[in-house]
Amino acid sequence: MGLGLGLVTVGLIAAGRGQVPISPAEVAGSVLHRIGVDLGPLPSAVQGENALWLVRFPRVVLAVVVGAALGCAGALMQGVFGNPLAEPGVIGVSSGAAVGAAAAIVSGITVAGVWTTAAAAFAGGVLTTFIVYAMSRASGRTEVVTLVLTGVAVNATAGALLGLLMFVTDDDGVRAIAFWQLGSLAQATWGAVAVAAPCAAAGLAVAWGQARKLDLLALGERPARHLGVGTERLRITAIVATALLTASAVAFTGIIAFVGLVVPHLIRMIAGPGHRVLIPASALAGAIVVVTGDLVARTAIDYQELPLGVLTAVVGGPAFFWLLRRTRARAGGWG
């Protein structure tokens, strides 16, 4: 409930900030009047209604979708791999999805209509996730060091492929790929929300449905099997859900790193490791982080916008170093 109220508060503040200032009360009044409730003041600024419904609300809603997807994907991957270092960006899933989306843009393929970019991102995310999963498994368990090193290799390969796509495409393609690498909500529209939201909702529903099995998997693979959990089926289901969640985020915003790493870990420290709480709480907290980060990115410097992916990396990078050191100390070393 606290995270839900926090998300509503942050959303009202974010929607009101910009070149046309609108108070949170006027933002709430505009929403209420739009749904037929004659309560609260309407925006007094010139073009305030247009600024809200054509520019800011699509951006805030897409930020909520992206943050929830990344937070949930991080919690799901950490539960499946059994360690707090797993995250779509760290192990290269986001980069793989971005390569798929960039390849669709450069090639001009439109076989799936408005869903083509999201479908290509989904395919790239699924392929990358299965590669990481296969290479990080040894003797029936997932090795943390191999997981991180595989992520380094995947990110390097994805970076090279993005560079190659930039080399063979035109100026528009170069700008689009640069957008993927930096990450931004600047191109948010209601159309993007209409495509991303169903993908994220489906991934969240699947993740929520696997919460009890993930709790049993945390006991160990053998005890989970004895308790009736099909561990390989669970992992495959979680991998597909993670790719769907990551694709819904990457397809329209580019790479936004470290949200899925830091948010679930902090929620786990506060609320415990139970996935019935961890998954929805990580989704809400991820939405708060992305909405807040986007607010800072577009208001920190007048008439300029910072790349959201760069901003989250500046904050998330040091947090990852701390988490890596903390995990190593708890494990007594990697050797």
Mean pLDDT: 86
Determine the fraction of residues in helical runs and give it as a percent range.
Answer: over 70%
Strand order of the largest sheet: 1-2
What global shape is seen? Answer: globular
N- to C-terminal separation? 42 Å
Number of helices, where a helix is a run of at least 4 consecutive DSSP H or I residues: 14
Return the structural class: mainly alpha
Nutshell version of this structure?
Helix 3 (48-81) packs across helix 13.
Give a structural overview.
By secondary structure, the chain is an all-alpha fold. Helices cover 75% and strands 1% of the residues. It has 14 helices and two strands; from the N terminus they run H-H-H-H-H-E-E-H-H-H-H-H-H-H-H-H. The protein has a two-stranded antiparallel sheet with strand order 1-2. Strand 1 and strand 2 form a beta hairpin. It starts with a helix and ends with a helix. 48% of the residues are buried. The model has no long low-confidence stretch (mean pLDDT 86).
What distinguishing features does this structure have?
two-stranded antiparallel ribbon, 335 residues, 1% strand, mainly alpha
Give the arrangement of secondary structure elements.
Elements: H1 2-16, H2 24-34, H3 48-81, H4 93-107, H5 116-136, E1 137-138, E2 141-142, H6 144-168, H7 171-182, H8 190-209, H9 211-217, H10 221-226, H11 231-253, H12 259-271, H13 275-299, H14 308-331
